[in-house]
Amino acid sequence: MTQTHVFDVIIVGGGGAGLMAALNASRTAKTAVLSKLYPTRSHTGAAQGGVGAALGNLEEDHWEWHAFDTVKGSDYLGDQDAIDFMCQEAVQSVYDLEHAGLPFSRTPDGKIAQRPFGGHTNNVTKKPVRRAAYAADRTGHMILQTLYQQCIRNGINFYDEFQVLDLLLQDGVTAGVVAVELATGELHVFHAKAVVFATGGHGRMWDITSNAYAYTGDGVAVTLRRGIPAEDMEFFQFHPTGIYKLGILITEAVRGEGGVLFNDKGERFMERYAPSIKDLASRDVTSRAIYLEVKEGRGIQGKNYVYLDIRPETVNLYAEKDGRTNPDGSPYRVTAEEILAKIPDIADFCKTYLGVDPVKSPMPIQPTAHYAMGGIPTDKYGQVVVDAQNTILPGLYAAGECACVSVHGANRLGTNSLVDLIVFGKHAGLKAAEYANGADLPVVHGDPADFARQQIDRLMNGSGKEKAANLGRELRKVMSDDVGVFRTEEGLASAVEKVKELRERFKEVKVGDTSKIFNTELLNTWELGNLFDLALVTAVTALERKESRGAHAREDFPKRNDENWLKHSLAWMDGDQIRLDYKPVVITKYVPKERVY
Amino acid sequence: MEIRLRVFRFQPEKDQRPRYDVYTIETDPTERILDLLEHVRGDIDGSLAFRRSCAHGVCGSDAMRINGHNLLACKVLVKDLGTSEITVEPLLGLRVIKDLIVDMGPFLEHYKSVMPYFINDDIPADGKEFLQSPEQRARFDDTTKCIMCAACTTSCPSFWSNTEYVGPAAIVNAHRFIFDSRDTGAEKRLEVLNEQFGVWRCRTAFNCTEACPREIKITQAIAEVKQVLTSGKLE
Hints:
The complex is a heterodimer of chains A (597) and B (235).
Chain A: E1 3-12, H1 16-25, E2 31-35, E3 51-52, H2 63-73, H3 80-99, E4 114-115, E5 132-133, H4 139-153, E6 157-160, E7 162-170, E8 173-181, E9 187-197, H5 218-225, E10 230-231, E11 236-243, H6 253-256, E12 260-262, H7 270-273, H8 283-295, E13 306-309, H9 312-322, H10 336-342, H11 344-354, E14 363-372, E15 376-377, E16 383-385, E17 392-398, E18 403-404, H12 416-437, H13 450-460, H14 468-482, E19 486-487, H15 489-506, H16 520-544, E20 553-554, H17 562-565, E21 567-574, E22 577-584
Helix pairs in contact in A: 1-4, 1-12, 2-3, 3-12, 5-16, 14-15, 14-16, 15-16
Chain B: E1 2-9, E2 19-26, H1 33-44, E3 63-66, E4 69-72, H2 78-81, E5 85-89, E6 96-98, E7 101-102, H3 105-113, H4 134-138, H5 157-161, H6 167-178, H7 186-193, H8 207-211, H9 218-231
Parallel strand pairs in B: 1-5
Antiparallel strand pairs in B: 1-2, 3-4, 3-5, 6-7
């Protein structure tokens, strides 16, 4: 039996963006949140270092500086109108979170504490600026908890452990979604006037990843199958400091607090790659530096990792060399206790997974797949736009990592993921409610659950010649080998062929578990199918983009090429074929120039 | 190394009663228990059901009993257990739905009953943050770490004997607000916690503190709430 429900606004995803959207939409419209996890399990909770906003609590700062840093960080691919909007709105949004109870760390005079982060600068002195508002090293956890708590206070309707499978469109207008209830295996049709996708990223297609298992690109995959393009999918961020082999994130705040990267020769190699900002260079720059150090044989013991050192003696030595000072002008010096108080969770990860105490030994780290800059194309109000002319699809919204506004362009600055989800989550929710209040509920013709059912049937009734787990391993290998930090024509071309082959073989997979109740094998297999689709789009768009920009680094085209490539990619999926188009970047006042840190 | 992994199995659509399946697995001592379960589900028996997401101890999905202790499967390495015999079972005190998946419903109801949300709509006139000193912020830091994994509540003998008891996790989340200098809802929360199935059901067994993967000093937090109720003073 298929159950049906009717709402004004359906939000898919219970992370930061989804909950922000829910809190804002529910003020004026009948709203429900569908989440495949309990909302507090969402990946927003893994964000560590901080949320950027020019509060200026510790030193001079301006939202315009935040905007310029974001434009520069994006390697000029971010849309400047949207970036201005985000950085301006960030300030009020952070105060809103504080008013909702978020327990930010505090300055001595009781204000929200702020710390330096990669790529965030005083635009006059070019030195790092304290802009990341933080709650120890669990800022994302506190955002997620605070938003969930306020959702409880406001009686938001939650459908926990419901996996979205399909988007309903009728005559070009949004009409709802179809989801499966994991506890029963039953399909549910949610008729709605407006739908907000807030389903997060897709970093599980790489081997070394900081991403949760849940990060399988569900929203982008569902919309691709319904003829909606994905934007800028060639841009995926590799965070420079993942725990060796495991990929677990070590926040950039470690470098913000004075941590330094070293190669096997004990050299602070970032001096060579980013002479003025050094270890706090943008993530793409730092990840490439580590890759090159390793490639040239200077990884630790010749292996593919380097050291991140936050021992107080190291921090103090380099703080002195750099002339780093506290806000009151005194020299910056730290003790082991102070470090541990600022990064308690990082210390815990190191002890648990590496047996290393970070104030006594350096941490072995390597770049780890981290963040999708690309996703479902939207405007700055979260409205989904479906072509190069930015035509709006009525009733459909996206926010957070699954969306591409685009504010991150070719490379996201640290802290801006949280900025993105609070600002655009809020506005997507407001816009969705506003739209729903002026729209009629579309009548869906035919069986709305038909396509969702077909997808399940295909997975349950395959030949069984292939095993999903094996195909997943092959996917992660090819993506890591050929669609990683550095890319080449040859590697990308072979990756496209390999992913196509894997997608063919995936048709031979059969889910062995025939039960209805918590059939997690079925769920995981469906998720893997999403990763295959997104991997194909990623590889094809990366092959096509013959330049290096931000996180997309081509060994064969090492320079940025504004003449031909200062444009966003749009990719449509039609079976095995990916159709591409491009749209211009919105440039307002920041003229593209070479990016030097 | 070779390990014997015994896993509690209960498939409600076909099993009358639970059973244990045993898997012999060749593994590295630095593998997480979660990695072993993933290996079983991906390569041996797809029907094994368990929850997981972040895989590094911050989302709270994969709390389960591992060799008798409530732990997060992603935060325990094979070598931490000091044995090659590993038994994995669902949390106690919550209904088993399938294999390692338990019904979180009652746990969440208890959580919601203590008003686990910030109450103060009197926003500062300048529109900026409520001021709070670092010392005031430190007062409730420990209880902000909770990830709602339920390891504490399901290790509590008082909860096992009567599941109407709100349990340690709910008290931790009440504590987080009661001791927040900016919050104005302490009185109402304390009222709930002073009721029959509130904080007085705690018999100071310390199981919760031992079980917490976030190392929250839960028994102490509960004692602090009791202290406020006894003295009538929120220090």
